Every structure is written in C-alpha cells, then in structure tokens.
Amino acid sequence: MTEHLKMDQVQPHLLDETGQGVLSVPMPRPEGPLKVTGRAPYAAEYKAEGMATGVMVRAAITKGTYAVDTASVEDMPGYLGVFTDKMVRNAAQGTMGTNPAQMGDKILYLGQPIAVVVAETFEQARDIAAVLKVDYTEDDDAVCDFDGVSDWPDSDKPDQGDLDQAMSDATFTVDSMYTTKPHNSAAMEPHAALAEWDGDKLTLHGSLQMLGYNRDEVADSLGIDAKNVRLLAPYVGGGFGSKLGMSPDCVGAAVAAKALGRPVRVVLSRNNVFEMIVLRTATRQRLRLAADKDGKLLGLGQENWQSNLPDEPMAEPVDLATHFLYGGENRRYGQHVAILNRPASGSVRAPGEAVGMLALENAMDELAEKSGIDPIELRLRNIPEKHPETGVQYSARSLAEALTEGAKAFGWDKRQKAGTRREGEWYIGMGVASAARTNILMESRANVTLNPDGTALVQTDMTDIGTGTYAILGQIAAEMLGLDPQKVTVELGDTDLPKSSGSGGSWGAASAGSSVFLGAKAIRRKLAERLGCEVEALRLQDGVATGGNNRRPLAELMDAPITEEGHIEPGQTDEDYHQAGYGAHFAEVAVNAVTGEVRVRRMLAAMAAGRILNRQTATSQVWGGQIWGIGTALTEAIEHDPRTGHVVNNDLAEYHVPVNLDVGDLEVMFIEERDDASSPIQAKGIGELGLSGAGAAVTNAIYNACGVRVYDYPATPDRIFPHLP
Amino acid sequence: MQITLTVNGAAREVDIDPRTTLLDVMRHHLDLTGSKKGCDHGQCGACTMLVNGRRINGCLSLAVMHDGDEITTIEGLGDPGNLSPLQAAFVRNDGYQCGYCTPGQIMSAKGMYDEFNKGWPSHVSDDLTAEPNFTTAEIKERMSGNLCRCSAYPGICKAIEESAEEEGLTKRKAAE
C-alpha cells in the first residue's frame, strides 16, 4: 500500500508526540564504522569480471572541430579502443532528466571531453590518452572573458516601483559593484563510473546525487530506454552540486563497455573535474540600497552579469534571497547571461545565495556604516511583514531570533568602531550577516518495512553524499515505530528502490524524510487496528505497542513483515506560504597590518531550519557552510585565461579550498522551530543555509577590523594591503 | 616488475607495471581500496598511508621504489566491528561527512602522533629547536595536508585530541 500526502495543508506535529526520543538528538552516523575503516565502497572501487579502464581525453583548443587519429595509438600496449560516440559536452544540470549537449565533432571550450581511451590497465590508458593524436580545426571567434562580450543580453525581470526615484528620495544610499570569481565544488571523490552491460541492460556504479534524474539523463544520452538502466551509488564522496547531473564519465564508460563487450571503468582526473563538470559562474553585481533616516529601506536593487555555454538550462539565481529577505517598496533586478567559451556554469553549493548574499549583506553593512545604525538593528528594522513582492505570508521565520540570540552568544556588544581594535600587528574586527535559503519540498518515495522481531528496513533510491541521510532516515523510522535506531537498516543509492527527491537544493532531508515518515505512519495505522485502538492513542516504544488499555510486544501483533510505501508531494502550502530557512552568521577576524593577511579567529552560526533531525549531523552541515564561507570570502577563485578560457588553476594545489589551519573556532546554535508549511515533519534544509551569508560575515569583519571594504572576491592580501591605513 | 611489500603485516608479492603508484597497487592490485584517490597529485592527502612508520602520499610514490618496505593502510588499523581508538573517536565526533578523505585523515593523524613523539617542530611552533606542545594549532597545521571539502575539521581535531594517548602520544607538553 502507498501512504500518499500532497502537502496541501499544514500537518499535526506527530513527531512531537511519539515517545522513543531518538529524533533531533545527536546520533553518530550508522555507516561511520565502514567509512573510518575504508570499507565503504565508492563508485570506482567496485570490481567486475574482465574490467577494462578508460581515461578521458580533453580538448586542447577552445573552439573548433576535431578528429582523433586512432592509428596513432593502436599499437600501444594494452590498447583496446578510442571512443567518441555520444560524448556529452559537460555534466547535466540538476534535475534536468535529459541528455546534456552532445556536440559530435564540435568543441566549445578548452577541456571539453572529446574521447575516452580504453586499455587493459589504468597506466596504459593514461599513456595512450597522452600520446593520442588529435587533429583540430580552430575557429577564431571564441569569446572567453566578460570584457570581450560586446552585447550583453537584456534582462526580462520586471521592476517594482521606481528605484531611481527611491534612490534620490533616500537619506542614505548605497550603490556598489561587487565581483565574484568562479567556484568549483571540489568534492573529494572525483566523478567515476563503472559500466557493465547484460544484453540491453546497463548497470552503472556512479558518483551521483540524484539517481532518479540521473537514470533518465544516462538513458537519454545513450538513446536507450530508462527501464534498461540501473544506477548504484550507496556511497558518494561529496557532491556540493557537482554530481546533481550525470557526468561525462558515465557516457564514456557505457559507450566503451557496449562496444568492447566487457565492463569499463572511467575515473575523472582532478583536472577533468575542474573542466568537464559544471562550475559556478563568475558574477558582477550592482547593489543599490535606498533608506530613509531611520535606515528603513525604500528600495533595493540587485542586477547581475554572468556567463554560460549555449543551451544550458541554468543561470546562477544571484538574487534568490534578495526577493524576500528585506522590505522596501521599490525593487529592481536584472540578470544578464553572456555566452562564453568556458566550461559550463551550473550548481555549486547554494546556487544564488553563495554569491548573491555576499554582495547583499556587504551592501547592508555599508548602509549600516553610512547611517550609523548597528548592523543587527538595521537588519531587524527591515524584516518585512509579508513577502515584499508577492504579498504572500511567511511560514516559520526566526530571523530576528537568530540575529539577537546569535549576537548575545557571540559577544556582539564588544564590537568596536571600525579600525580601532588592534593587537600587535593585527587589526581585529567583528562582522555579521543574515542567512536565508529558500526551502523546497520535492516528490519522494520510500518503502518502510517493520519485521515481527522488532527490526525495520528503509529503502529508497535517495543518496547520502555526506549529508547524514543514513542517520536521519533511520532516526525518523525508529521514532515513528518506537525502535532503537540500531534496529533500523537504511538502504540507499539504487534505482531499483523507490524513487526519491535525490540530494540537492537542501531538499533531501525534508523530502526523503517525509516519505519515510509517511510509510511508517501507515504501519502505525495497521498496528493500531491490530491492537484495537485509535491510531491517535497508539504509543510505540522499545518494540512494544500500547493503546486502548492494551499493551503488546510487536511480535504478538505481527506474524509477517509489514511493508508500506510513503509518498510525499509538494502542494498548496507551497503557494500559501513563502518558506525559507533563516539565520545569522558572525565572524571575528584578524587582519595583518603589514601584509593584509586575514585569519578567521572564530565564527558563530545561529540557524533556524524548522525541526532539526539530528543535531550532530546538522551541526556538521553548518560547519561545512561556515568553512565554505571562509573559502568564498578569502581564497576560492577559478582563474580563466582570458584568451582561451582555460582553467589555469585546475587542481587542488592552485584552487584553494580551506585547510584545517584556515579555520578558527566554530560555534553552531539552532533556534528551536517547527515549520508547519514545509512538510509533515516540519523540517527545512540546512546544508546551504549554513553557507548563505557566511562569507559576508567574514568580509564585514574585515571592514570592521581595518576599514577596508572588499568589492572583488576573494579577499586575498593583495586586495587589502594597498588600502590599509 | 616483481616486488614484495609488507602490507598491514603480511608479505604481498606483486608483478607490476613500473608506472604504477603505491596508491594504485593498493587500489587496483591488492583490493585495498580504503586508501583514496582524490587528486593523484599529492595535493589532497586522501591517499595517506604509513611507509616504514612515516606518513606519505601513496599517489606520489612509485610502488617499485618500495620493494621490501612495510606499509600500513587504513585496513591495517581496525575493523568495522573492532575500531581503533582514533577510528572510534572519528565516529563519535562526526570527524567526517562523506567519508572519502577519512582514511587519509586517520592515517595522517597516526603518523603525526609519532612526529610529536620525535619532537619535530612545525610552521606554527614558537621555537623550532624546542620540542613542540600538542596544541590545537599544532594539530591543525600538521593536518593541513589533508583536505576535507565537507569541512569536518572541528570534529577531526576533536577526535585527534581525544584519542592521542590511546594512540601512543607520549606527552602533550614538552616540559612534561
């Protein structure tokens, strides 16, 4: 049976009435022992009888056509073949469900996958790929840099009111240009695929976030029926958006395996990951704020310029949070997407907010400075009653609590005037930024099975990319069924299991979690019938059912397992309420008065994301967000060669993700909240909320420390040092 | 080429292509996939293993250079049902998320304890000629060759601090 819920109205807080007490509390991940012993298998670590190894070949020109000269390598040891058929230009975009662009012999960016070389061993394939002769015909009309764009496309975003008028009427105004460099997800596990055919049926171990969509993308790219594709990804070594869509290694491995009649494994090199997988576009952003004498916003504007390859159904939604975070009658947006011959742009953790909130929250800091209003007070004054553009009411929104309680815990009252606190050769400062991330519920299914011996099984094609899915789905089932979580087994990452929301957009926990909740709810109803009580009166705890003056161990109520499918769909509450997670980030930094070097001493995040399902894994997600904030603020920047679009720093030595010593003391606090509109489990996403605004808190702290406002990210010493007092 | 490695206490003879890295011998030839490949360039540390007791990046070393060497990989510590103190501390403190960098973090920490015992200084040591103190800053500096994009650094540091003595750290303060 299927327990189906379309989220058309707010739901009761059943999870506050169940009595097991295993939800929300910290619980170590059940798969932890496999991970810390190296026994959890990732995509490239499966074996298949007779497996060959493939290596991707990348385009060495920016734009033109190519032909591979197979004869140049046929005699090399171990050679099995060179395949160009069905090659995809880049990874698919998240939730696309169709093939990414397939270009035939055309090249649109340097680093584009153009062939897969297959040999008996990795060492052989790598050398063959290096030697393979490729004949290129180069076009001379490539455009690789913002400065080369002659014609920026117009934006189709309508204005609200008259921002120009508001700017001239205002007592205080900000009008600033910010720029951000491209970012790479840089998940630690490079994308990998092991493809094996059995007749028309393809089994593929992949490193993927959203198997239901990925299956359609693989099938569409290969021109086969999705029913003939099975994807497996029980362990994924990080995603951060880079594995939302099927990657070129999947197609390369599948095509080669079919042609050779044996399994083929293709693992992307780290350089490949920087080129063939989507990166976050560079942005230019113009921020305008118009405020009255009390700091109340009369209007705001956020216009952005960015780039992508042709025909990519994705633009960085830079202004996503700006639409609903602060009030102000007059509003202007604008999005201009140029076509550049660079690797494809796509989702990197918190698309939109990750860069949009840097500029917005820096601009708010500028306004605070100009108006002489404390940055927290300024934000509190501008929290709108209703959505300032649609008039829709908000669901749970603890932004004010996050700002004020966070400030108290952080010691915000000790913040001094900009440039006045010095310790030796270091300027010290504090910064704050709001956090906001739109909440999304997605359709999701899961099977829940309760066994007479008091064990349970959860099955869904959902993935755990480090986010804690194994832990929280087990906890939800255990809480609903009155079991120790250790008695619940969670099976994930297999398209033979019920189709889930997948991991992305911070919707995984609430969506997949709700499907498990619903499956378990159906089991509760059956148990109540068998016990002879109303389901409202049923209490399940430690394998015993109580209700209506009856008390029976589960084993006495069941002679066979009960399996129920839970199925959640978004509904009317999505229209009736504007839903988002909120929070506040605080940072204390030290800026070296001699070199301009910035060190983040400590950060605090106060987060409000509805029901927290596991305080330990949720904290880890926020730590991740804070540290990504440090990276975006201080070090992360892809540098494109302006002549060729080449990703110059296409490895982890030159693209600087934060290392252990870059990170000061981190504190995370959760604001107690239930979001009734979000889902039947009242939870919202937190993985991206933790990043939204985090980097701005760091750069605002830099300003408070030394009086230098950074407009061009990241805030490397060369951008600070020349402006020091 | 024929070489013999002592891996996790057992002698293993392998006949390998001389281009094969120590990491790929483990992953492709000995079915020891616990050591991870994150960059194949010595930049991320996911492949960290101990060679004759010292931590190295397995991807930066050719296997044929290690004929006769003693190598410890993550599989040589504990089993899922019988974790080493450091492994248990990683689970307890959520010193990971996706788990991909984790074997490298743990092997790196194992090697680091020994470097403390030997009195090696680091970039953050105040005095390069004195024995170092086992401080958070020292741990962070010495673990900065192991990237964690999930950014579990707070949990990683806590796990390393909590299990130090159990894992063989002889003293926390140089003066002791």
Can you characterise this structure?
The complex is a heterodimer of chains A (725) and B (176). Chain A has 725 residues and is of the alpha+beta class. Chain A folds into 3 domains: 2-39 and 444-568, Aldehyde Oxidoreductase, domain 4, CATH 3.30.365; 43-140 and 185-276, Aldehyde Oxidoreductase, domain 4 (2-Layer Sandwich), CATH 3.30.365; 352-359 and 392-440 and 576-723, Aldehyde Oxidoreductase, domain 4 (2-Layer Sandwich), CATH 3.30.365.10. In chain A, strand 17 (422-423) and strand 18 form a beta hairpin. In chain A, helix 8 runs parallel beside helix 16 (694-706) and helix 15 (615-634) packs across helix 16 (694-706). Chain A starts with a strand and ends in a 5-residue tail after the last helix. Chain B has 176 residues and is α+β, with helices and mostly antiparallel strands. Chain B has 2 domains: 2-76, Beta-grasp domain (Ubiquitin-like (UB roll), Roll); 85-162, DNA polymerase, domain 1, CATH 1.10.150. In chain B, 28% of the residues lie in helices and 13% in strands. Chain B is built from 5 helices and 5 strands; from the N terminus they run ββαβββαααα. Chain B has a 5-stranded mixed beta sheet, with helices on both faces. In chain B, helix 2 (85-92) crosses helix 5 (153-162). Chains A and B meet through helix 1, helix 2 and helix 15 of A and helix 1, helix 2, helix 3, helix 4 and helix 5 of B.
